[in-house]
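Hi everyone, sorry if this is the wrong subforum. Our group has a chain we'd like a structural model of before ordering constructs, and none of us has done structure prediction before. Sequence below.
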Amino acid sequence: MHVSSFFDDEFEEHASVVAATRAELRAPFDALVDVCADSLAAGGKILFFGNGGSAADAQHLATELAVRYIGDRPAIAALALTTDTSALTAIGNDLGFEQLFARQIEAVGKAGDVAIGITTSGTSANVLAGLEQAKDMGLVAAALTGRQGGKLPGLADPLLIVPSATTARIQEMHILLGQMLCGALEKRLGYAD
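Answer:
Right subforum, don't worry. Here is the predicted structure as C-alpha cells:
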C-alpha cells in the first residue's frame, strides 16, 4: 500500500465515523452533560477511568476539568483513577487487576458522583467492575465505548457507543466527545459563553 493511499483512506474512515457519531450520539451525549452538570452543581465529582489509551484519555479529560479547557475559571471536581502508581500497583498485587477501579471508587466515590468508564471494546473487566461498584454505591455509572457496546448496555447509562469497530476511530471519537463534554460543562456551569 502506498503511503498516500493510506493517508487518504484513514481520513475517509475518520470522516465517516465522525458523521455517524454525530448522527447517533446527540441524545446520549446530552444525557451525559446533564448528569455531570447535575452532579457538579450538587457538590459531586466526575471520576474517569480506563486502560491504555483510554487511561490517557481519562487523565486528559480530568485535567481539562480540574485546570481549564476554554478559559480561566474555577476548578471543576474531576479525577482520573489511572494516575496513582502506588494505588494501582497495590490493588493489582493485593486484590487483582480486575479491582483496579472498583477499589478506588469504593474509597473516593460517593452517591451522586459520576463514574465514566472508557473502553473501546466494552469488555474490559476492570472497567465493568468499576461501573458495577459505582452503581452499587449510588453513583451515576456512565461509559464511552465502541463496537456494539460489549457488556455495557444495561450497566452504563448514559452510554455513548461510537459506531465503529476500528479501535483508532473509536479512540478518536472518545477524545472528541470527552473534550466536547468539558466545553459543554463550562458553558452549563456559567464559566464560558
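For your construct planning: The helical segments are 3-24, 26-41, 53-66, 85-94, 100-108, 125-136, 167-188. The longest helix spans residues 3-24.
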